[in-house]
Design brief:
With about 110 residues, the chain is mainly beta. Helix content is about 10%, strand content about 25%. It is built from one helix and six strands, in the order E-E-E-E-E-E-H.
C-alpha cells in the first residue's frame, strides 16, 4: 500500500494487496519518506488508538499499543493518514516547481 502526503484511508478494509487480501489489520511495518508524518489509527474512520510516525518503523510489533503496554501496533492498523511533517515539503520537494509537479502527476 503506497500513500502520498495528503492521502488517507478511512477504512483499510476497502484496500487490497496484489493477491486480493485486505490491508485492514495486516500492516507490520511502514516506511515514512522525509518531510511526511504518518498517522496510524487502530479503528476505521480515524478513531481508536493513534500513533504518529516521522520515520520508518520496520517492526510495528516493537511499538506498544494500549494502556497495558502488552499489545503492539503489529497487525492493528485500520485507518491511516499521511500529513506534511512540521517543516516538511508539502506535496513535493522545494526544488520542484508546482508546474513541474503537475506535469509529473499528469504523465
Amino acid at each position: 500500500l503506497e500513500l502520498w502526503v495528503g492521502e488517507e484511508r478511512l477504512n483499510l478494509q476497502h484496500d487490497r494487496d496484489g493477491k486480493g487480501r485486505r490491508w485492514n489489520d495486516r500492516i507490520s511495518s511502514v516506511r515514512v519518506e522525509r518531510g511526511a508524518r504518518l498517522v496510524l489509527f487502530s479503528d476505521s474512520d480515524f478513531r481508536g488508538g493513534r500513533l504518529e510516525l516521522r520515520e520508518d518503523a520496520p517492526d510495528l510489533a516493537a511499538l506498544a499499543h494500549g494502556e497495558s503496554g502488552f499489545e503492539s501496533w503489529d497487525d492493528r492498523v485500520s485507518s491511516i493518514r499521511v500529513e506534511p511533517g512540521r517543516g516538511g515539503w508539502g506535496p513535493h520537494p522545494p526544488w520542484v516547481s508546482d508546474r513541474e509537479a503537475e506535469r509529473v502527476v499528469r504523465e
